[in-house]
């Protein structure tokens, strides 16, 4: 059997490449004669840089979401495409304590500026996701050269909490994008504002209490009015509204992260080779089928599909041959999280034995 192992990372636990390798080890215990290919994937957010083939890392002095110095990097692909991942500089896991009102994308903007000014870069791919921020991308635009002002004419502090005081934005000195433009990758289709938007839906995940959410929503509403553009556009709320800021402040276009990364790494060709594809992620739920790696692999595959997930919290669509859950195999969430490598091997062997 020709087996393609193409998972997303199990976020916060183990990266996509390690997931694939552990599953392959488990599979070989049961079926050592099969032909296995590992193709780790990402949804255009956290972990995107780790799955890119033939990429050269470009280190950049940056800052994290609360302004602390941090050595970060972006990746240069053959042909002139620069891939810049927000989470490398401004990811939520980098903070010991979240700062929902003060966190900004300024450090991400430094990476974007470095890539835009690098000789030979013809296109920037901005991987959004995993952010600690809800600033509408305002910090990134400031790092790129935008000037924000308040009613008194002074520059506001960075962070989403200050956006409600912004009365103007000057983009005349912003860094020019590369000749082939900027693509923002997103794994959510949430609008900027409203109950499903950046503040209400994702703000609590970044430490925002009810009062903070009100402040952030008010700020994003003000920001949308000042910057212009459609706050109701699908995906505008990605990464705390960073997608909205880059689209309307830097001329970026928004695309599905999982499909874009799949094209970069050659998923379709690999699926044509395979008799069976194994994909998965840390938590399988209803969101997995819209914009995520699992949903894209299932929709793209013409071969049989099996899933390995950390935890399963939804029904499976028709056509899934098997689904192994680390939590179910381990008997509880704690051991599965404590030693995911072991349980991924067990899952790989379980799936291999189940398809005999």
TrEMBL record:
EC number: 2.7.1.31
TM region(s), chain numbering: none
GO MF annotations, alphabetized: glycerate kinase activity
Presence of keyword Kinase: yes
Protein keywords: Kinase, Transferase
Coiled-coil annotated residue ranges, if any: none
Top-level taxon: Bacteria
InterPro entries recorded: Glyc_kinase_flavodox-like_fold, Glycerate_kinase, Glycerate_kinase_RE-like, Glycerate_kinase_sf
Family: Belongs to the glycerate kinase type-1 family.
Classification via PANTHER family: GLYCERATE KINASE
Cross-referenced NCBIfam families: glycerate kinase (TIGR00045)
Protein name: Glycerate kinase
């Amino acid at each position: 059997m020709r087996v393609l192992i193409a998972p997303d990372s199990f976020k916060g636990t183990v990266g996509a490449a390690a997931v694939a390798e552990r599953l392959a080890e488990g599979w070989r215990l049961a079926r050592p004669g099969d032909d296995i290919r590992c193709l780790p994937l990402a949804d255009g957010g956290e972990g995107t840089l780790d799955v890119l083939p033939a990429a050269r890392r470009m280190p950049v002095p940056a800052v994290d979401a609360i302004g602390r110095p941090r050595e970060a990097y972006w990746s240069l692909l053959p042909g002139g495409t620069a891939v810049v991942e927000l989470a490398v500089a401004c990811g939520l896991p980098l903070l010991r304590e979240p700062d929902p009102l003060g966190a900004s994308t300024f450090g991400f903007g430094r990476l974007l500026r470095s890539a835009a000014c690098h000789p030979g870069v013809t296109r920037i791919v901005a991987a959004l996701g995993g952010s600690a921020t809800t600033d509408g991308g305002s910090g990134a635009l400031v790092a790129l050269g935008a000037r924000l002002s308040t009613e008194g004419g002074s520059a506001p502090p960075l962070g989403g909490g200050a956006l409600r005081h912004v009365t103007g934005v000057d983009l005349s000195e912003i860094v020019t994008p590369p000749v082939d433009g900027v693509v923002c990758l997103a794994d959510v289709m949430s609008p900027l504002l409203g109950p499903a938007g950046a503040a209400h839906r994702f703000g609590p995940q970044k430490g925002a209490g009810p009062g903070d959410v009100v402040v952030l929503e008010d700020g994003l509403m003000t920001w949308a009015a000042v910057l212009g553009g459609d706050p109701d556009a699908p995906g505008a709320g990605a990464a705390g509204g960073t997608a909205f800021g880059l689209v309307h402040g830097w001329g970026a276009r928004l695309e599905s992260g999982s499909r874009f990364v799949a094209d970069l790494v050659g998923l379709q060709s690999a699926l044509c080779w395979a008799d069976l594809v194994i994909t998965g992620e840390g938590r399988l739920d209803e969101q997995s089928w819209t914009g995520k790696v699992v949903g894209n692999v299932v929709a793209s595959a013409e071969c049989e599909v099996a899933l390995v997930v950390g935890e399963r919290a939804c029904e499976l669509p028709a056509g899934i041959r098997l689904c192994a859950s680390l939590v179910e195999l381990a008997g509880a969430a704690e051991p599965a999280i404590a030693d995911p490598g072991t349980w991924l091997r067990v899952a790989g062997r379980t799936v291999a034995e189940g398809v005999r």
